[in-house]
Amino acid sequence: MQEPEEKKIALELLETEQAYVNRLHLLDQVFYTELMKEARTGKMVPEEVVKMIFSNISSIYQFHAEFFLPELQKRMEDWDCNPRIGDVIQKLAPFLKMYGEYVKNFDKAVELITTWSEKSPPFQELIAEIQKRKVCANLTLQHHMLEPVQRIPRYELLLKDYVRKLPPQSPDRGDAEKALEMIFMVAKHSNAAIAEMERLQNLWVVYQRLGLEDDIVDPSNELIKEGPIQKISTRNNSTSEKYLFLFNNMLLYCVPKVIQVGAEFQVHLRMDVEGMKVRELKDTEFPHTFLVSAKQRTLELQAR
Question: Where does the record place the DH domain (predicted)?
């Protein structure tokens, strides 16, 4: 008798889960534990740095090793009388939200490993020593750390495949479809968390370039575009170099600072986007010019 397709996929889920738990064990119980032990002696690297590198890997490891893997194993041993995994995955899905924190922290963690490997030879040596062990299979710490980042998309793919191969009358159809929907939502949640973090990081960099002016720093603002512009002075028919930052709610008209200590720009004018009008001008002497009028003021500008 050939195994039904859906059972093959369920077995693949179990096998990859076993391998994944081994990888998590390596990250949490070997790398994290040994680096932490050294950090406590205070010579190699601050404890805080080690915690920041590994984020919430311990919770992720415990959840998979003590709950999800055993549940999956039980279910597969019992497959012939109860051929289903959808309900088990439904129990798993809400907990996958804790990946958001790990995934969000991943780039920072990799950066910390690089920085501290240069700063602290003993730190680098300990990592290199662990990497030489058989259990590491010639792969770097960074490589192993990527595994949890890729795990949720992997569940999604396997489950999609599983649902596709289920016979129409399978007792697992309803549960498996619901589980797939839940996993899909978690994946979306984790991607949204990363996108939001990147947006805030980029916004903060812009605020620093503007000298962190109180009335401008607002986490809900969205930067749409920025770039250099020429301001036309009709009085003496000349142009001067300025810089614009367009947000969803305001246009900042700035002057580049000559001495760049701290801020890069000085905000000369803040104009509300609400009610703002932009009109192209046909000027033979100054091509690519336009008028921006807001309730604060009207500017004549020339683009490159």
Answer: 5-193
Q: Which residues, including other chains, have CB under 8 Å from residue 82's CB and lie 6 or more apart?
A: 75
C-alpha span between 202 and 288 (Å, rounded): 29
Mention every residue, 6+ apart, whose C-beta is less than 8 A from residue 263: 208, 209, 210, 211, 212, 257
Take residue 63 and report the two structure tokens written for it: 């959840």
Q: Work out the average pLDDT over 247-273.
A: 83
- Beta carbons of 86 and 179 less than 8 angstroms apart: yes
**pLDDT over 90 (residue 45):** yes
Quote the percentage of the chain above a pLDDT of 90. Answer: 50
Cβ neighbours, 10 Å, residue 152: 21
DSSP secondary structure of 101-170: HHHHHHHHHHHHHHHHHHH-HHHHHHHHHHHTSGGGTT--HHHHHHHHHHHHHHHHHHHHHHHHHS-TT-
- Tell me how crowded residue 223 is: count the other CB atoms within 10 A of its CB: 15
- CA-to-CA distance for 168 and 163, rounded, in angstroms? 10
Cβ pair 148, 158 in contact under 8 A: no
Query: Beta 250-256 vs 223-233: how paired, if at all?
Result: unpaired
User: Per-residue pLDDT averaged across 254-263, rounded?
Assistant: 76
Residue 214 confidence (pLDDT): 59
**Ordered structural domains, the chain, with CATH:** 5-189 (1.20.900.10), 223-302 (2.30.29.30)
Per the prediction, the chain carries an average pLDDT of 89
What per-residue confidence (pLDDT) applies to 215? 66
The pLDDT score that the predictor gives to residue 15 is 97
Q: Measure CA 252 to chain center.
A: 29
